[in-house]
Amino acid sequence: MSQSSHLNKSLDDEMHKVLEDLTSNVKQIQDDLLEEILTHNANTEYLKRFLHGRSGKELFKKNVPIVTYVDVEPYIERVANGEPSDIISAQPITKFAFRYVFCSGTSGGKMKLLPFNVKYLENVEFISNVRSFVISRHIDGADQGKAIRFAFIKMESTTPSGLPAAPASTIVLKTAYFRNLASKSYTSPNEIILCRDNKQSMYCHLLCGLVRREEVVSVSAAFASALVRAISFLEEYWKELCGNIRMGHVSEWIEDTSCRNCVSEILGGPNPELANLIEKECNQISWGGIICRLWPKTKFVECVITGQMTHYIPTLEFYSNKLPIVSMKYFSSETSIGINLNPLCKPQDVSYTFMPKMAYFEFLLVDEANEVKIVDLVDVNLGCYYEPLVTSYTGLYRYRLGDVLQVSGFYNNAPQFRFVRRNDVALSVDIETTTEEELLKAVANARMVLDSSDLMLTNFTWYADISTIPGHYVGYWELKAKNKNTILDLDKKLMAECCYVLEETFGSIYRAYRSKNGLIGALEIRVVLPGTFDSLMNFFISEGASLVQYKTPICMRSSNALAILEDKVFARFFSDKPPPFDF
Ligand code: AMP
């Protein structure tokens, strides 16, 4: 065994031990963590209000309120405006992570500022190390090549007090740890990841990935949406990319000097053979399996594919010829949370094991009877639904994450959760509410109807149209022909069948209101032109969203964003028969 394999083996053994220890001693680790956070922060203005300088789990549970962002926003804003960090956190807040949230109204959304400090980064590094360990245990040779990683940054801004603010992903990508990781593991040099222009960055990621195709063992992005965007960008730009490879010269519009220089170096010089090879693959009628054809040594595709991302599964399976899609991490701008310890499971079966060192986690039971019950991480029950509350080192206390999770099992004593849905996403035109999970499930069922045709649903969103009487659900759909030479053939019967299947999947109140009482109108699918959802993404990015963390909204509320969709509608279909109802 070589010296480096010895080293790797002992690091592996070490990580195995750490993981076993963490997942076995969950209660102790969580209790110690809470005590440490409370003792450290007992004198913050926020906690003093509730604990009067004392700490202790019981007092904490009794006195500290459960909050959402709006409750803590005034405190966070005060720090952002220049008051000392210790209003909320003893550990200095050095930056803010901003998250773009989609809302109603004329703008697309608004920014949430979340406190950020060194503890957040330590946790991200830890999760990243666990991820590498788990992947290398399950996928042979995963560390013997590079990943094409579609990573992007957003320009940093500053708060009125001069503290930097950027999406959490941007802050993380700029750290020495990640720069080092990227230079060892990714096909793109850091200059490309850190380029301020996402379009130039995307182009250069693809160019480097294509030139280094023989080294590529995985294709990845944080969320599936960015990966699907990368493939559609490739569809648009492959001829130009091939031209660059053929001539050994980068397109003039790549103006960022650092990007230009490093990509030119990677290109090396004219390479007509490679250009021909790529051209041959991209010219094929179908783009099915394009990932494996362009990067033949790819072993897996990595991105978050759960929750809102589930609807990208068929598209990614199509592009990758069903390579494993590995969804490793569960994280947020508030804290890192958990990891998937079984990376090769089916995307539908992914569960995340909570890492008890990341934050103190409590769980609010999500219950039809509206019973308020909060339990600790070790006390969750198999099969039950919960919303996590986070108490962190960054100054958040009993903060509702807004996600709904279901307990799916345990690894040692650490609970594992299936991601179910966001709590705040639902559609409603009358007294019925249709949750994000139901909306996604309905689309998955309608997709099976499409399977009999040449059509692929690449993106969609929902809208509750109450301008009609009665109000009705509208799905904006972007469709694509699997065979790229085919003209989109929208068969009226097939599309009406899709509408029917969508309605049939919804809850009993929806179906009764639609069928028996006529209080909900026939569901409508509005088909939009190809590229519409890319325009939508560009709109949200121009408003402040980050490409790395972008998640296509499942329900549309912003009138400006809606206008983008409406402008591209070219066909409308309605359900032509009411769904069955049970009462
Ligand atoms: P952000 O702060 O922009 O990174 O968004 C965090 C949110 O993304 C979480 O609260 C979840 O709603 C979602 N998210 C993050 N990781 C996952 C995952 N593995 N599966 C499903 N949703 C996720």
UniProtKB/TrEMBL annotation:
UniProt organism field: Camelina sativa (False flax)
Keyword annotations: Ligase
InterPro entries assigned to the protein according to its UniProt record, in alphabetical order: GH3, GH3_C, GH3_M
Gene: LOC104764946
Protein name (Swiss-Prot/TrEMBL): 4-substituted benzoates-glutamate ligase GH3.12-like
Domain GH3 middle, first and last residues per copy: 352-422
Residue ranges of domain GH3 C-terminal in the record: 437-559
Family (UniProt): Belongs to the IAA-amido conjugating enzyme family.
